[in-house]
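thought: user wants a sequence for this fold. calling inverse folding tool.
action: design(structure=
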């Protein structure tokens, strides 16, 4: 596709990027718990997802309570987050694409505002991100990390606190209300919950699933089974930020630095 400058001054192509295992090499939630709590405590907290059938946010609220009980407050938590390595080459990918005036980058993640903002700040990526859609979190007066749902939704397949399809749909609708339309949408992610927004994409759009993770397996199963509606977008797998950037330049028809 030939890309041209935006008629509205904003992006004509939209990148929807997941955070954990896509930008961040690790799962931010379990990294923080494992960095600051004993192995036994962490295993017990994480196991409650199966044993108690807790939704992920409940698991994490219990994790944050355990951090508070152990007197792990803001500085320690933020320091732990800042130690997480980014996926190789991903900072360069975001910088290169984010510098293009016609590309808009949003993050859609089931992590939280505190973790994502800390890691983006540390790697100086904040200026390239147009919006972060994630669960709000903050430290209260006692230094306790509080976590809230991103929104409510009626999707049957997503966690109760976040559906990335709803995020993308609302974002597209807002864009249309402002008199614009994206020429091309790219969904970049690794996880099972990155599949839901892919169902909104058209033949002109592209899904970039990370090799070896759940999203690509889901897409492969889907293409074989024929039971569910197939996704219409093209699928371009990637391993790290370097090969992602090379593929992105090709499919988006961009000449980036
Ligand atoms: Mg992920
Ligand atoms: Zn959903």
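)
observation: tool returned 257 residues.
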């Amino acid at each position: 596709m030939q890309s041209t400058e935006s008629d509205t001054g904003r992006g004509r192509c939209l990148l929807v990027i997941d955070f954990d295992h896509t930008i961040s090499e690790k799962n931010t939630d379990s990294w923080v718990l494992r960095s600051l709590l004993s192995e036994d405590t962490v295993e017990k907290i994480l196991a409650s997802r199966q044993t108690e059938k807790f939704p992920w946010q409940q698991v994490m609220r219990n994790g944050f309570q355990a951090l508070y009980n152990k007197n792990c407050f803001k500085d320690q938590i933020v320091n732990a987050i800042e130690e997480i390595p980014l996926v190789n080459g991903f900072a360069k990918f975001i910088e290169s694409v984010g510098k293009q005036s016609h590309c808009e980058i949003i993050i859609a993640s089931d992590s939280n505002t505190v973790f994502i903002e800390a890691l983006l700040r540390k790697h100086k990526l904040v200026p390239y991100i147009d919006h972060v859609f994630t669960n709000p979190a903050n430290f209260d007066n006692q230094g306790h990390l509080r976590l809230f749902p991103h929104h409510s939704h009626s999707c049957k397949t997503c966690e109760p606190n976040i559906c990335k399809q709803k995020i993308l749909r609302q974002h597209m609708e807002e864009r249309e209300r402002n008199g614009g339309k994206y020429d091309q949408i790219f969904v970049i992610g690794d996880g099972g919950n990155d599949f839901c927004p892919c169902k909104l994409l058209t033949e002109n759009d592209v899904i970039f699933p990370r090799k070896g993770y759940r999203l690509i397996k889901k897409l492969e199963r889907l293409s074989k089974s024929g039971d569910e509606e197939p996704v219409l977008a093209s699928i371009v797998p990637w391993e790290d930020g370097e090969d992602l950037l090379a593929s992105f330049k090709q499919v988006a028809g961009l000449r980036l630095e």
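thought: summarizing for user.
answer: Here is the designed sequence. The pocket of zinc ion (ligand 2) is lined by residues 155, 157-158, 163, 165, 196 (CB under 6 Å).
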